[in-house]
Design brief:
Layout: H1 3-23, E1 26-29, E2 47-49, H2 71-82, E3 89-95, E4 98-103, H3 108-117, E5 125-133, E6 142-150, E7 155-163, E8 169-171, H4 181-191, E9 194-196, E10 226-228, E11 231-233
């Protein structure tokens, strides 16, 4: 494919993805996915459609966006550093000036070591991990999202790995990035992602005997009535529904 054809394909990508998104089946309605309580958000008619996972084409660097200046360099250096294990990266996504590598969970720990130790990469800092829950993404319901920062090369990337509800295990990277200790505990506490190899995977916000993981989208809203100046505000699942 010529450079002109690659540029034309890249220019048509947003429109192509938009058409695919509108043609996809509706996965759920409403902002938060709830169906048992009243809708007080005003977003009850929102339709959330499914879409195929994004896989950005080369080149990743956009000459009109300085934020993407080193994206191709980083992707090439990571592929070279992984060598025979380059297949650990399932896909690469470029969006909103950010570079994301989607990685198989069994390869996460070794990839973290490569990001830290390879001289061409040198991502000295992992700023933490956050959990995300997509209950309709069968087999990939839970995601662990990491941000890595290279002070040496002034570069930042995102790494995402997934696991299913039925087997919510992801390798801990605390042995490579010790500052991830509390971040992994928080992702376990709120989302139920089990980080295998963590030195002390206990709750960090909720009481030790708390049941469930309250930032998952299938967790009941519940709540308690709030009294304020003689008035009582009921919990979210008991409020009136406005249609």
């Amino acid at each position: 494919m010529s450079e002109k054809e690659r540029n034309e394909e890249a220019a048509d990508l947003p429109e192509k993805q938009g058409r695919e998104r509108l043609a996809a089946p509706v996965k759920r309605t409403g902002m938060f996915g709830g169906s048992t309580g009243g809708d007080t958000s005003g977003f009850g008619g929102l339709q959330v459609r499914g879409s195929a996972p994004a896989n950005s084409p080369r080149p990743y660097t956009d000459p009109d966006d300085p934020r993407t200046a080193d994206f191709d360099r980083v992707a090439d250096d990571l592929e070279a550093a992984l060598g025979e294990d380059a297949g650990a990266v399932e896909r690469v996504e470029v969006a909103l000036g950010e570079l994301t590598f989607h990685v198989r969970r069994e390869a996460l720990l070794e990839l973290a070591r490569v990001l830290r130790d390879d001289p061409a990469l040198r991502y000295e800092l992992c700023t933490g991990v956050a959990g995300v829950h997509f209950p309709d993404d069968t087999g990939r319901e839970l995601r662990a999202v990491y941000h890595f920062r290279s002070i040496s090369h002034n570069s930042e990337i995102r790494v995402v790995t997934t696991c299913p509800d039925a087997d919510p295990h992801v390798p801990s990277i605390v042995s490579v990035y010790p500052t991830n200790d509390w971040h992994e505990r928080e992702a376990w506490d709120f989302f139920g992602i089990v980080f295998d190899g963590h030195p002390a995977l206990t709750r960090i916000q909720m009481p030790d005997d708390w049941r469930g993981h309250p930032q998952r989208k299938d967790y009941p809203l519940g709540g308690i009535p709030v009294e304020y100046r003689g008035a009582t505000v009921p919990p979210p699942d008991e409020r009136r529904s406005y249609t």
